[in-house]
Amino acid sequence: MKLAFLHDDKDELSPLWRALSLLAVDGKEERVGLEYGRASSLLEADAIIGRDFLRGEISVLSLIYPFVIDGEKIGLGDELINEFSLPPLKGRILGIGLCMPWFATCISSYGGDNVSAIHPLPFRDSSFDGVVIYELFDHDFTREAHRIIKKGGKLLLIFRDQLYGGVSPVIALKFVVKFSVTSVTFMDKHWIIEATRVK
Fold first, then answer.
1. b/e string for 137-173 if b means 16 or more Cβ within 10 A?
2. Domains identified in the chain and CATH numbers
3. CA distance 56 to 58
4. I need a surface site. Which of 100, 107, 154, 157 has the fewest CB within 10 A?
5. HEC profile for the chain?
6. Which residues does the UniProt record annotate as the domain Methyltransferase type (predicted)?
7. Torsion angle in degrees (nearest 10) through CA of 82, 88, 93, 97
8. Per-residue pLDDT of the chain (199 residues; tens, 9 = 90+)
9. CA 25, 30, 36, 42 torsion-angle sign
10. HSE of 58 in the Cβ direction (CA atoms, 13 Å)?
11. What is the distance between the alpha carbons of residues 130 and 1, in angstroms, rounded to a whole number?
């Protein structure tokens, strides 16, 4: 069995968003740096092990790995229910880490028409009016979202506040590259960062 471990700067187990390296063990060890992007550097394994995963991370990692182990927990659990109200966006929308009935397609391990590929995203340039990313902070996903969103299209980055098991908006804003942030809103324990593709 091949196992993959996510490590932070102290070489301790970490969530995907904070991981700086991935250690794969299968009789021998292989370490990959994750400093500049994570989705493109994930190695094949039978299980990925970390700590304090965000819900969207678990949803996407479950598409790749048969087992996602978060400390002592395995898999999604029941807490991945939508706990926030999000008005529908207009046009063709892609959901990453989250799936709602009005999304055109989703990269998520539950609900709707799901796509299993994660990097690169299997969509043409400028093919979506918007992308909703739920609790997944990864520069690779943000760059891909920028590529597939039409000029003037919207990116919504949704995540729980750190008091409710999520992260600080200051951390989240570091992952909104190439977009122009138009609003940051807090409601229902969640932050919603709205950004527009300008170029």
1. bbbbbbbbbbbbbeeebbbbbbbbeeeeebbebeebe
2. 3-74 (no CATH), 93-197 (3.40.50.150)
3. 5
4. 100
5. CCEEEEECCCCCECCHHHCCEEEEECCCEEEEECCCCCHHHCCCCCEEEECCCCHHHHHHHHHHCCEEEECCEECCCCCCCCCCCCCCCCCCEEEECCCCCCCCEEECCCCCCECCCCCCCCCCCCCEEEEEEECCCCHHHHHHHHHHEEEEEEEEEEEEEHHHCCECHHHHHCCCCCEEEEEEEEECCEEEEEEEECC
6. 115-156
7. -10
8. 999 999 999 999 999 999 999 999 998 999 999 987 788 889 899 999 999 999 999 989 988 899 999 987 776 544 544 566 776 789 999 999 988 888 999 998 876 667 877 889 999 999 999 999 999 999 999 999 999 999 999 999 999 999 999 999 999 999 998 999 999 999 889 999 999 999 8
9. negative
10. 21
11. 39
Q: Residue type for 184, please?
A: V
Closest CA to 157 of 178, 140, 142: 142
- Report residue 159 as tokens: 């995540």
44-95-63 Cα angle (round to 5): 20
Query: Which pTM does this prediction carry?
Result: 0.92
Q: Which two tokens stand for residue 66?
A: 């048969």
